[in-house]
């Protein structure tokens, strides 16, 4: 996309689009008749970009993120993906980076420097904690972890030098849903910026910027790409917060490759239908498991009993296919008897693809403020509901739980 066709930083054009989100997903970031009528945007592989004159060079250098300037700042397909994400997220502009974790780094560093303090929900994605503790910590930023169920009480942890509140809902592995409006209001009242990891819900099921969050990211690796074949991080922000975020992303300098941007844009076109199926199947599995003898608790935000269920009903437009179950207490051998012989559910990191996944998890590793809550509990399994026939998935889980029940405790 050229200077002229790339949306301006005001985001004003978006408010004028009268179409529903499914329609916009089909058309966003795409201009077939600028490319021989070909439906999908072209991929350019580029590092060097040539300028015909000194004038052109100087003009481009004034804002390297606007046009096509140098490969590290992206190529037209990067810009198409960035614009598409900004449009769906309802932000001023978008940024694509090489992974979700890189996007989190940009969020954490955009508003903080030595001597600052950040507040992070205790149930954030474990690598987010690693970035906060190790990366920020090494550069003189202090971190406090708070109970995700603290609501407006998060304000008790703010200090005069608190610059950022890092949110994620539902929480990684444990799926509690924080009272986001209460936390966002508390942060605003204290002049603290808010950033939110929206990987679970995607812009289809949660609109953090409309709720008052300053910066939102998602691991495009998960539902956006949707086929387990590329790493991607995407970000957007309010017009006011965007320049600092853009600066941090440019300082990090980790662009996604053009082929991966293509895959993310292609994944985006079917996001809505895939999410509807992940949601339906996830709910079917969760409800089935909730009635199973070997299951102590299902941690799915859409099911009553999951902490924050009411906040979920109030603030989210839907659930994705990722949730967890706490089993009746049992040994590692019994877990192995279950997960080593699944027919359909496979073990592996990440999620958001078309295939179903199962992963034993121990939240205590990645909790400080709420570690007690997860001690003395049965084993936790994280489940990603893929696009297979739900009845086949239920049969696979039932057979696995029968193995779990039958195996001897070591
Ligand atoms: C996977 C994940 C990330 C990181 O994404 P990568 O692309 O793997 O770096 C961030 N947040 C959440 C909630 C995730 O699940």
TrEMBL record:
Keyword annotations from UniProtKB, A to Z: Lyase, Pyridoxal phosphate
Signal peptide interval: none
Pfam hit, one: Cys_Met_Meta_PP
Gene3D superfamilies found in the cross-reference section: Aspartate Aminotransferase, domain 1 (3.90.1150.10), Type I PLP-dependent aspartate aminotransferase-like (Major domain) (3.40.640.10)
Biological pathway: Amino-acid biosynthesis; L-methionine biosynthesis via de novo pathway; L-homocysteine from L-cystathionine: step 1/1
UniProt GO BP: L-cysteine catabolic process to pyruvate; transsulfuration
Region described as Disordered: 1-21
Annotated protein name in UniProt: Cystathionine beta-lyase
Organism, scientific name: Tistrella mobilis (strain KA081020-065)
Lineage, broadest ranks: Bacteria, Pseudomonadati, Pseudomonadota, Alphaproteobacteria, Geminicoccales
């Amino acid at each position: 996309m050229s200077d002229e066709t790339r949306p301006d930083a005001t985001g004003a054009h978006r408010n004028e689009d009268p179409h529903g989100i499914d329609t916009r997903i089909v058309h966003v970031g795409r201009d077939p008749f600028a490319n021989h009528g070909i439906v999908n945007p072209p991929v350019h592989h580029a590092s060097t970009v040539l300028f015909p004159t000194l004038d052109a060079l100087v003009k481009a250098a004034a804002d390297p993120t606007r046009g096509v300037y140098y490969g590290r700042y992206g190529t037209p397909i990067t810009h198409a993906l960035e614009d598409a994400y900004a449009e769906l997220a309802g932000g001023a502009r978008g940024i694509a980076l090489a992974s979700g974790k890189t996007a989190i780094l940009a969020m954490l560093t955009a508003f903080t420097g030595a001597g600052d303090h950040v507040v992070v929900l205790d149930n954030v994605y474990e690598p987010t904690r690693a970035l906060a503790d190790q990366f920020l910590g090494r550069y003189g930023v202090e971190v406090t972890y708070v109970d995700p169920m603290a609501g407006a009480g998060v304000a008790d942890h703010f200090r005069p030098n608190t610059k950022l509140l890092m949110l994620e809902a539902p929480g990684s592995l444990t799926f509690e849903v924080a009272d986001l409006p209460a936390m966002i209001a508390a942060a605003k009242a204290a002049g603290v910026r808010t950033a939110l990891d929206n990987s679970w819900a995607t812009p289809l099921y949660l609109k953090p910027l409309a709720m008052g969050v300053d910066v939102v990211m998602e691991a495009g690796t998960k539902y956006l790409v949707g086929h387990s074949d590329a790493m991607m991080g995407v970000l957007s922000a309010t017009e006011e917060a965007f320049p600092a975020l853009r600066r941090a992303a440019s300082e990090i300098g980790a662009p996604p490759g053009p082929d991966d941007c293509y895959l993310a844009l292609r994944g985006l076109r079917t996001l809505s239908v895939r999410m509807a199926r992940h949601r339906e199947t996830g709910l079917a599995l969760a409800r089935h498991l909730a009635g199973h003898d070997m299951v102590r608790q299902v941690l799915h935000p859409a099911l009553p009993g999951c902490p924050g269920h009411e906040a979920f009903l109030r603030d989210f437009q839907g659930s994705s296919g990722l949730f967890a179950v706490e089993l009746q207490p049992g040994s590692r051998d019994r877990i192995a008897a279950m997960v080593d012989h699944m027919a359909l559910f496979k073990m592996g990191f990440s999620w958001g693809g078309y295939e179903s996944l199962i992963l034993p998890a121990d939240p205590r590793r990645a909790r400080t403020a709420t570690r007690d809550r997860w001690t003395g509990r049965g084993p936790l399994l994280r489940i990603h509901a893929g696009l297979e026939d739900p009845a086949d998935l239920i049969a696979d889980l039932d057979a696995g739980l029968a193995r779990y029940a039958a195996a001897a405790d070591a």
